Amino acid sequence: MLDSPLSASAYEVLGVAPDVDDDGLRRAYRVRLRETHPDTGGDAAAFIRVQHAWDLIGTPQGRLDYDRDRDDGSRLQWSGRAAGSRSGTRPRTASFGQAGAWRRAQYLRLAREWAEGDVADPYAPAFVRSAPWQLRRLLADALAEEDTARAMDDLGIGFTVWHDVAAGGDDDVLDHVVLSPTGLYALVSEDFGGPVGFRRDEVTGPVVRDRMPVAELLSRVRVVARAARVRFGGAILVFPDDDLVEAVTSLGTVGRIPVVAVRRSALRPLLRRGVPGARIVGGTELFDIRTRLKQAARTR
Q: Mean pLDDT throughout 264-281?
């Protein structure tokens, strides 16, 4: 099962090659358990990942299913559904652009370059696992954006969302802009393939590498704010549920903008009640902001 394009494979977690024999796999599992067990100074998150890896490939049948990529990659495939499309009669969030589409296009282009030709299925789990980190990063970002867009799709007619908003250079994109009854918010959808932490006002952890997600988000917020002549009330970093300890973590006010990190499952309630400390907009100002964004926000 490919949980995230950036997730290590079960074999990588256990520190063995995919062609290891069953005895070697069992020995590696026991070694990794001792190394990561919290009672012996190990990391609790790593200990859980080792147990999960063993659950996947620790039996002959489980390993066979894993090696055959029983996960058909359906989550990796892109439906191409345009933002704002309708299904059924329930009112949907008004939206513009296609979440993840820009990064999907970049991924496909670079995948062909890396493979030096056409790829039969660039979303096949085996292909994704073998791709360089930079490629998997693009796909992980696209998937994260799509998951966030789905989470916001039924907020209702009081909300307007723009996806993949141009924010300066060719590679600068603000993932989501959300205009709601509680304020104007800038969102970035992140998936680093593992748990993250926070230090002062930035995201930290081994999986983050040299990225500075908060600084990157606020830099793009300033570009869009100037172009549209609007003022953002808050900035939100959205993570997979398993990657955050708390449902919502406040990072304080950074550059006069309240910043929070949120589990994706907690995003809708947060948008409905508002980011703590965010400036509330309403009345004619709400319509004015919507008009300016419609005129100035350029989606990729």
A: 91
